[in-house]
Amino acid sequence: MHDLLARFGLDKHPRIITDPRGDETPEKDGVVVSFNPATGEPIAGVRLDTPEDYEQVTRKAVAAFDRWRRVPAPKRGEVVRRIGNAYRDVLHDLGSLLSLEMGKIRAEGIGEVQETIDIADFAVGQSRMLYGKTMPSERPLHAMKEQWLPLGPVGVITAFNFPNAVWGWNAMLAAVCGDVCVWKPSLLTPLITLATNEIAQRIASEMGHEDIFQVVIGTDDVVGERMIADRRYPLISATGSCRMGRRVGSVVAQRLGRCLLELGGNNAVIVEPDADLDLALKSTVFGAVGTCGQRCTTSRRLYLHESIADEFVTRLASAYQTIRIGDPLSDGTLVGPLITESAVQSFERAVAAAREQGGTIVAGGSRLDPSHLPANLRAGHFVSPTVIRAPRNNHLPIAMEETFAPILYVFTYRDLDEAIAMQNSVDQGLSSAIFTGSSRSAERFLDPAGTGSDCGLAYVNLGTSGAEIGGAFGGEKDTGGGRESGSDSWKAYMRRQTCTINFGETFALAQGIRFE
Ligand code: UN1
Hints:
Layout: H1 3-7, E1 16-17, E2 27-28, E3 31-35, E4 42-47, H2 51-68, H3 73-89, H4 91-102, H5 106-126, E5 134-135, E6 142-150, E7 154-157, H6 165-176, E8 181-184, H7 190-206, E9 213-215, H8 220-229, E10 235-239, H9 242-254, E11 258-262, E12 267-271, H10 277-289, E13 299-305, H11 309-321, H12 341-356, E14 360-363, E15 386-389, E16 407-413, H13 416-423, E17 428-429, E18 431-435, H14 439-445, E19 457-460, E20 472-473, E21 476-477, E22 484-485, E23 494-502
The structure holds 2-aminohexanedioic acid.
2-aminohexanedioic acid binds next to loops.
């Protein structure tokens, strides 16, 4: 049993089995085993929820919502403020547990928990700013206003790659909006989920509010499908693959529910000839290899102006040589493992396809040779971060797909319009970046007429990943159109009511209609 589990009370947790079977089947006999992706070892087993458990959790959520919505919003903000502080108290250890189970390096694990703290702070302020508008009525002695009301229990479905912060974006805002959350995490990261959720619910319980934050852990068949079809969840917020999003979107649409979808990305970086190339290089390397290429915002395509392409690729290749791959919990490691063996196989398939399609491997290209790793990491899912240069005609169909691995495909372009067209040519529309010293090129990329980047996130002289929480996060096209986190994303967790009040004594109809 790992010390980190005891740190969060998971060693004595009723649903945790501390000496799980060691085979590689993820779920069997009502138990899912969580594996350390760096060592391949089982960390602990977690009992899965049954349909009856799901029903019980949902009933509790409905009852809790009816209590919680009556708590004044700034008082709900006070609960969230204390939750944020509780995460502050365990920042390092919770980030380390995340790193242990998910495999991102510790600095990124801590950064992810920090992202939850940041959105908690944001939500506290928002709890006093759930503003509606007033608008002038066209009728005398009438008033009009809109108000924002709590929506109901929110079903939050998250992916393995951001097992703490994506829930945080949803849960902290939903809580101040008067909603309760039922969290269905990825089966690959049940431990960080339980630790994260229990901290929030412990604070809420201490303040007299039960069942505000609950978890259901189960397969899509048992839990996921039930939840998305369940009218008791007016909002389903789901993060994951485009395939998953299509299923969630269509089932929720059938019942005319609301969906917030954060799906795949296939994000590109454009480097103009007038760019600060040192900055572009560092940002591109982090964007492409950070979290071992498993962010939805990972840089997957690089468009280089032909005048700088060869030099930039050479520098990129030598930068890749210096990347330290290894134990995500060791200081100095920059890249940890992929999440599973099947992720390694997807990586290998994509590299093989790129080769067949005429791509040239410039860096990496294979699973990491285990003899380069310490003995305890030899069963880990490590790959070499990879750069593949497209053939001269830029035809590389595999680059149109999102492979959740550190593969960067490099293309060359002649002018910016061509680069923008290529960057927009994929199905997804999450994140995009340009490096340039010219405001003309930057503004072209951000053209307010919408002819520049077609993504939900557009960066100038920054990489595609690493969004701050203050802005709305999400993307267009197959990315699903949802917006979470900052700006006015809170509105997704509330229902809008337009109120018209006649404070006079006359019967007056809008549009000048007479009905005497
Ligand atoms: C994700 O990969 O699902 O912008 C979220 C970023 C992070 C969030 C990524 N703040 O890279």
